[in-house]
Structure formats: structure tokens, C-alpha cells
């Protein structure tokens, strides 16, 4: 009887354990041991990462995005053969977690580094770092991408653009340009995006906007600055935006070189997180939901080197960091009351660049 009970308990525990697993996809640079896009299983109760599989072998899939129905995945890719253009790729997600390539399209720029989809799942935007261009694509019903419908070239005779990220918000499109030291605002008019503002706020001292986070209500934009190791907070006004806060991401006693990378809010938007490459830390901020201002409350080591990207699990219980140079993914427990992080463990992963739940 006891043996039967034990077997039944073990079986039920296994069902519960594996039911808590969700897929975690990892984009990589394939210049070391990495071969393409990887899938892991992430346990939302324990924070454990397990069961690495190669979802698809493909060159340098360094940033990923889902379709809203989770049937398709998209990536930006840098060609190893320099005689061929860099590109954006569309995949069908198979039932076993692997991908089938649907099609690719020219990224219309060099070194694409970011990709995002609009809420309707009808458009993709790609940021090309070296090309300084931003390309828009229509998404077909079968998940494939059409040729680029619009390409914005931010380069001028005197300034070289380095488009680093772009995001849709309703009928708006925002673009962070590291080279031009600006965040652009486009608006959808007659089915095309038109430039509304070449700079939503003045970025003094060339801090270098890289990534940004838009609050759910669209009233605030939090811009993490690569060169300035800082976050610029912009508030929407009747006439556009204005800067309302500016905060360092570094510890008071850190004096070395640093380059900021990524930024994400907690699901309830009470806290904001940013990554430091150099200090190799996550900076934690408490956010005032009323006026949008933030206050730094923690800098914690990423337990690795060069945290290019990080993400929060869908429940907001864990924060995961992709440490590109040390080839590991670090997992932190989030205290939902305070926003503070506690390191749990890490998992080896080949050249992780982007994490996506």
C-alpha cells in the first residue's frame, strides 16, 4: 500500500512539476559554440532551467519576437558571408518546440540588432545598427514576411546613425538611435508611418539612447543610455514629451567603464530594471506610478560577464540575465513587495544574446 501511495505521489508531483514548465527561447551570436536559436524549459515555480534543444540552426539570430498567437517566431540575423545581406527571418513553431524556416527578407541595413511586432501581429520593425536604418515589414496570414514596405534612413552628411531599437505603441512607432543621440517618434497616417518628431526630448551630453520601455498607459518612456550609464524619463504632454527625471544606473563606488544595455519594468510597473555591462550588474529602481519618477534601490551582480539582455518571466517572479561573454544565464528571485533581487543559480548557455518567453 505504501509503495503504491509513493508511486502515485511521485506521478502526481511529476505532473505538477512539468505543468509549470514553459518554453524559454534564446537568441545567440554563432561565432563560438552556438549554432542558432535554442529552447529551454523554465520552471515557473522553482526558476530552474532545463532541457536544452536546438530549435533551429541558423546564423547569428541575435534578437527574437513572437507573433501574438505564438504560432510564429521572427529573428534578425547577421550573415557570416559578408557578400550577402543581413536579414530578418520568419519561422513556424512546431509542436516539439523546434522551428521550420518560412522565409527571409533583406534587413536593408548592416548589423540588425533589434526586432519588434505590433500588437495586431501585422507589422514587424527591424533596427539596423551599422546601417543606421529602420525597416518595416508586413506579416502575411501564413506567418511569412513581405518585402520591406518602408525603410527609414537616419544617416546625415554630418552624423552617422546607429538605430538600436524600435517599438510600436498603438499608431505610433518610437526608435532609439544611439548614433544620432535621439529617440524618434513616427505616427501612422494613411497606412504609412510619418516622422512626427526627430527628437522626443533633448539628450544632453550624448548619453546614447539604446533601449526603452513605454508605460502601459503610454504616458511615460524610460530610455536607457548606453554611453551615459543612465536612464532618461520622458513624460507625454499635450505638445509631445518632456524630460522629468534622469538617474544613474551605477553604484556610487563604481569607477570603471560601463555600457548600459537593456531595460524592463515589473508587470505591475512599480519597479524598473536596467542592465550594466562593465559593472556587470542589474540596477533596480522603485517607480512612482503617479509622476513616473524612479529611485535606485539596488545594484546586484549578474554573476557573469556582459549582460546584453535580460527578461522577467510572465508571472514576474524571476529575472533572467543573458551573459554573453561568460556563456551563462543567471536566474534571480524577485521580491514582489520590494522589487529587490536575490541570485538563485545559473545555467551554461552558448553565447546568449536575447531571452524570450
From TrEMBL:
Keywords: Carbohydrate metabolism, Glucose metabolism. Transmembrane segments: none annotated. The keyword Heme does not apply. SUPFAM superfamilies: C-terminal (heme d1) domain of cytochrome cd1-nitrite reductase. It comes from the Bacteria. Belongs to the cycloisomerase 2 family. This is Lactonase family protein. It comes from Tamlana crocina.
Amino acid at each position: 500500500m505504501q509503495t503504491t501511495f509513493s508511486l502515485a505521489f511521485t506521478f502526481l508531483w511529476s505532473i505538477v512539476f512539468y505543468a509549470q514548465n514553459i518554453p524559454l527561447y534564446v537568441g545567440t551570436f554563432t561565432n563560438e559554440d552556438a549554432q542558432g536559436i535554442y529552447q529551454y524549459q523554465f520552471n515557473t515555480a522553482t526558476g530552474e532551467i532545463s532541457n536544452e534543444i536546438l530549435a533551429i540552426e541558423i546564423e547569428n539570430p541575435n534578437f527574437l519576437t513572437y507573433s501574438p498567437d505564438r504560432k510564429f517566431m521572427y529573428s534578425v540575423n547577421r550573415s557570416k558571408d559578408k557578400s550577402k545581406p543581413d536579414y530578418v527571418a520568419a519561422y513556424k513553431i512546431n509542436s516539439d518546440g523546434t522551428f521550420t524556416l518560412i522565409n527571409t527578407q533583406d534587413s536593408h541595413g548592416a548589423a540588425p540588432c533589434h526586432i519588434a511586432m505590433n500588437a495586431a501581429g501585422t507589422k514587424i520593425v527591424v533596427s539596423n545598427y551599422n546601417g543606421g536604418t529602420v525597416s518595416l515589414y508586413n506579416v502575411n496570414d501564413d506567418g511569412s514576411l513581405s518585402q520591406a514596405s518602408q525603410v527609414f534612413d537616419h544617416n546625415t552628411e554630418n552624423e552617422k546613425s546607429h538605430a538600436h531599437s524600435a517599438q510600436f505603441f498603438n499608431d505610433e512607432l518610437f526608435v532609439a538611435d544611439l548614433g544620432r543621440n535621439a529617440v524618434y517618434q513616427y505616427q501612422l497616417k494613411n497606412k504609412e508611418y510619418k516622422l512626427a518628431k526627430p527628437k522626443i526630448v533633448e539628450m544632453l551630453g550624448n548619453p546614447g539612447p539604446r533601449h526603452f520601455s513605454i508605460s502601459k498607459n503610454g504616458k511615460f518612456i524610460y530610455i536607457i543610455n548606453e554611453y551615459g550609464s543612465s536612464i532618461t524619463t520622458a513624460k507625454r504632454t499635450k505638445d509631445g514629451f518632456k524630460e522629468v527625471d534622469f538617474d544613474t544606473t551605477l553604484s556610487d563606488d563604481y569607477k570603471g567603464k560601463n555600457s548600459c544595455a537593456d531595460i524592463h519594468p515589473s508587470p505591475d510597473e512599480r519597479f524598473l530594471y536596467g542592465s550594466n555591462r562593465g559593472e556587470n550588474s542589474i540596477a533596480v529602481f522603485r517607480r512612482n506610478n503617479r509622476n513616473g519618477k524612479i529611485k535606485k534601490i539596488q545594484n546586484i551582480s549578474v554573476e557573469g560577464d556582459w549582460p546584453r539582455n535580460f527578461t522577467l518571466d510572465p508571472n514576474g517572479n524571476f529575472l533572467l540575465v543573458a551573459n554573453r561573454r561568460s556563456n551563462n544565464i543567471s536566474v534571480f528571485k524577485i521580491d514582489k513587495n520590494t522589487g529587490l533581487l536575490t541570485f538563485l543559480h545559473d545555467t551554461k548557455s552558448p553565447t546568449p544574446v536575447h531571452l524570450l518567453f
